[in-house]
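Posted in: Protein Modeling Q&A

I'm a second-year student putting together a small comparison for a lab meeting, and my supervisor asked me to include a predicted structure for Bax inhibitor 1. I've never done this before, so apologies if this is the wrong subforum. The sequence is pasted below exactly as I got it from our records. If anyone can share the structure token output, I'd also love a short note on what stands out.
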Amino acid sequence: MFVLNNTILYSSLYAFLFVVKVEVLVINMRSTSQFRQYNLNSLFSFGHLDKHVQVHLKNVYSTLAIGLVLSSAAAYGFLLSSYLQSMVTTLMLLSFVTTVGSAMYVYFTPHSVGTINARLCAFFLFAASTGLGFGPLLRVVSVINPDTIPTALLGAALIFVSFSLAALFTRRRYYLFLGALLMSALSVLATFSLMNLFLRSSALYQSELYIGLAVFCGFIVFDTQLIVEKRKAGDTDFIWHTLDLFVDFVEVFRHLLIILNSKRNRRENED
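Accepted answer (user: helix_wrangler)
Welcome! Here is the predicted structure, written out as tokens:
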């Protein structure tokens, strides 16, 4: 049990580093360039989605679906391969470097007809390396509570669809104002996680899990509406927009998975 607990901690630490690494990159880039790309008058716009926005969203969600399939396949490959499981540390480091490099390539390479294929490959590499990085956590869960994996996946899918629909069919100005609050909450989560590396507080850890789940549910709504507004302003970069939503989905799934296993372990300990 000591080995399993440390493996969970190690995998959770990697997942946290993944969140900070990607979301800080995304947020900083938004604050310096992307927020200037749409008209502030859109905050008070309540019209229906234009046809070009609908086409853009189809591109985003179809690319997201492919990315999630690749990520799942990579994670499943880790579960089946004893060789990959024997080199966990190297694999996680490689996954970390690959996700950073591919995300930076997607952002810094201009979106054009000539670069679409290369940027798509970079995003798919990002998705696959993310799946490999989550392999150790899924391996531990598959041994302890394997039934929580499909439950967490279904829950994440339902949450993602529900909050995406809420973002698309509600007042955009309301959810766009969530940006500053979500960014502040993410900073608080980072502080909690760093503190808990030394405090090892169970209460703080549980608080971090539930707050983190709420934060990334909020990011689903915020990112979806921001994508719509940026497309209205002429931004056609569906690959970068897909990466935003991919991070949101993966983090909702991770938080749900750990929460479900924490509850199951507490019930078993009480019994």
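A couple of things worth pointing out for your meeting: Residues 1-22, 27-38 have pLDDT under 50 and may be disordered. The two ends are 17 Å apart (CA to CA).
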